[in-house]
Structures are given as C-alpha cells and as structure tokens.
Amino acid sequence: MKLKLSLRRRIVLGFSIQTLLICFIAFISITSYVDYIEESVLYDYFSRYLDAYVDDREHHRVPAIPEGIRIFESGEEALPAFARELPEGGQEVMLDNGQAYHVFNKSVDGIDFTLVADQTEFEHMEITVNHLTLAVMLLFTLVSVMFSLTLANRIVQPIKELSERASNLNVNNIKQVDLDYSDDEVGSLVRIIYEQIATLGYYLQREKWFTGDISHELRTPMMVISSSVDLLKQSGISEQQRTDVYQRIEGAIAQVNELIGTFLLLARDKSSQQTSVSNTDLVALAESVMENLLDYAGERNNRVSINPQQPVFAEINPAFLDVVLSNLLKNALFNTRDGEIQVNIQASGIKVSDSGKGLTDFIKRYVNDLEVTDHRENGHLGLGLSIVKRVCEKENWTLTAYDSTLGGASFLVSFNQSRVDHSVDS
Questions:
Q1: For residue 167, what pLDDT is reported?
Q2: Is 402 helix (H, G, I), strand (E, B) or coil?
Q3: How many CB atoms sit inside 10 A of residue 256's CB?
Q4: In what helix (H) or strand (E) does residue 286 lie, and over which residues does it extend?
C-alpha cells in the first residue's frame, strides 16, 4: 500500500532521515576509529614496551612499569586465568564483573611474555563517550526536525496561499493578488500557476461571452419564426400578407442555417481545414459577400467601395474568409448610417473601415488581445466579432481593431502574419 504524505511531511521526513543517517555514519566512524587505536597503536606500544622491558633486564636495569600494567613470563602461576592459552598478539578481554583487560602475548629471545593491562576505567570512559555521542545524535536529529519544520512551512506557504486563493480568482481580481514571493523555484511556480489561472479564467469568461452572443443572435430569428407562425394561425389575412410571412420565415431559417454552418466550420479539425485551402480571388469573394448585403446597405443609405477592382489572389480557406468578411461587413453596416464603408484588399490581408459609431474601449482591448475584465461595457460584444476572432485564431490570422480615418472603426485581418502597420491600404 502506497503511503500518502503531504509535501510538508515529506520534507520533514526527508531531513530527519538524512540527519539520522549522517549521525549514524559519524557514530560508526568514531567507534571504528577508537577500535583502530586500540588494535594497532596501543598494541604496537605494548610490543615496543616489552622489547624495552627485556632490554632493561638484560642490562640489569630496573624496568619502569606503568601503573595498571603487569608483565608475566610463561609458566608463572600468578598469570590470571583469563590470560592463559591466548594466541600471540593483542586480545581484549571483558569479565563478567565488568572489568576489562588488554592481554598482549609476545616471544622475545625465546621467552614468552604476557602483558596484562587494566583498561576498566578506559572502557567506562568509552561507554560514556558512546552515550554522549548518541545523545548528541538525538539532539542533532531534534534540531533537524525543528529546522525542517520551519523550512517546510516556508516552502509550502506560497503553495498553501495559492490553494486558498485559487477558488476566488478570476480575470477581474487576478491583478489584485500580491505575488511578492521569493525569487526561487517555488516563487516561480506560484507565479506561473497564477498566470495559468488568469489565462484559464479569461478563456472561460470568453466562452461565456460567446455562448451569450450565440443565444442573443439565435433569439432574433426564432422570435421572427414564432411570431410569423402565430400570424399564420390567424384567419382573414390576405394572400400577399401570407407570402410576406413565408418570406420572413425563410429569411429567419436562412439566418439560422448560416449560423449553424459557421459553428460547424469552427468545429472542424485542422486536418480537414488544410484540405480546403485554395488560391482564392479575394476581390471576387468580397464582391460576392457584399452582393448579399446590398439591400441592407441600401436601407441604411451607406456607400460601400471595394479596392482594388482587379483580382487579388491568396492561399487561404475561402469558407472561413467568407465568414470573416461577412461578419465584418454586417458589423460595419449595423454601426453606420448615411456613411461610408471601405474594403481594402491585399494578398497579405483585408481591412474593413467605416464612418460609423467607432470602437468602444472594451472592443479594442478584447480584439487586440489586451487585458480585459469580466464585465462588458456598452452591451454585448456581438456574435459577429466573436466569430471573426474565433476564425482568425483558428486559421492563425491576426485581427487588429483601431480607429478609422473615416471617423469610425477599422478591422484589419492579416493572413499568417504578425500585426502590420495601420497605414497599409489607407
């Protein structure tokens, strides 16, 4: 079963285990070094001391025997029982009563000597040192746990704050959040998460706007159809009135079909779109779109011009350009009365300018991908511009909105290029 621990606990556990491991290695190293001193340096000292002891005896000098050391020759009855029958070299002997001895056997000039050194006091000191070492190890572990707790809290705090604030974040208040975190990996992660939340919130909000635009746009033809059906149910209407009602219903159905066709185009994947790209005459396509809108343009007494008159070709998806140009022209006609609309065409893009109401600050910022809030100004954006922006993003076209020299608005669609100077085609 996989153990599930929080990030904070994993940090504390990791530091604690690391400290314990280091302390354990240090403890083993100290005890191993003490054993090395006993087995090599001490026994080497005993060997040289026995040589000096024999030399003093041979020269009839009185050997100086340190306190705690006794020397026996082979066969002496005074040799302790625990020191008998031990191999040559140094041995450490621990007795049941707690006493400890070093026994060192060596043959000098054919005589076997046994050196017995009482190390009880040293052994007690060694045990005390081991206990102190264990105590220090536990102290270091405790300090490590406290330090790791503090460090874990500092590391996790930005993420904890983010998790607490994330549920209330949106595109309207994201800039009000204090991002004054440390300039490290955690702080960088928090800032990236905040930016992603802001971006996600913006796109979710944009989906709400788009859904609202669809609802707003579909409601009109449906209301036309509903009211027309109610009128047909009435008795006493003339044949001419009935014909007009049928035409209104057909017009509303055509409008709904056009919207549905546009939505289907937006839903198609990239692979199917690539097969629809062709060398398209932009001027002929613009004239075809404008021809379908001539009646509406005449009703609002607007003058529409398309420049240039000669063909201009570009490798694009004509169905998508038809949708974009149709919606831009509808938008221009809707916002202009007794004015002028210009369509300027180049192989690099198309610009639609009008002398109408002009652009609101929200539309400028939204179309130009600048920072916007989740509150719209001056009503809804309109399905037309929403669709145009969606198509441009899908086709990797660039849509730019700015004030027109005619006094109204200008929308520039650039094909697979970065934003261009507003002076083109002016």
A1: 67
A2: strand
A3: 17
A4: helix 282-292
Q: Is the pTM of this model over 0.90?
A: no
Coil, strand, or helix at residue 93? strand
In this structure, what token pair is assigned to residue 53? 């002891």
Give the closest residue to 256 by CA, choosing from 223, 283, 305, 287: 223
Q: Under a CB-based contact definition with an 8 Å cutoff, are residues 319 and 276 in contact?
A: yes
Provide the 3-class DSSP secondary structure of residue 380.
coil
Rounded CA separation 262/169 (Å) = 33
Let me know if 270 is exposed, middle or buried by CB neighbors in 10 A (0-12, 13-18, 19+): exposed
| Total length of the chain | 426
> Does the pLDDT at position 343 exceed 80?
yes
* DSSP H helix total and E strand total for the chain: 11, 11
Helices 120-166 and 7-36, axial angle in degrees (round to 10)? 160
Q: Is the pLDDT at 409 greater than 60, yes or no?
A: yes
pLDDT band at residue 344 using 50, 70 and 90 as cut-offs: very high
Residues ≥6 apart with Cβ < 8 Å to 237: 231, 245
3-state secondary structure of 308: coil
CA distance between the termini of the chain: 71
CA distance 332 to 409: 8
Q: What is the pLDDT of residue 123?
A: 79
As given in the structure block, the two tokens for residue 79 are 């040799």
The predicted structure's pLDDT at residue 125: 81
Residue keyed to tokens 């001193």: 37
3-state SS, residue 65:
coil
The tokens for 74 are 């082979």
Q: Where are the alpha helices (DSSP H) in 167-184?
A: none
Q: Residue 293: what pLDDT? A: 78
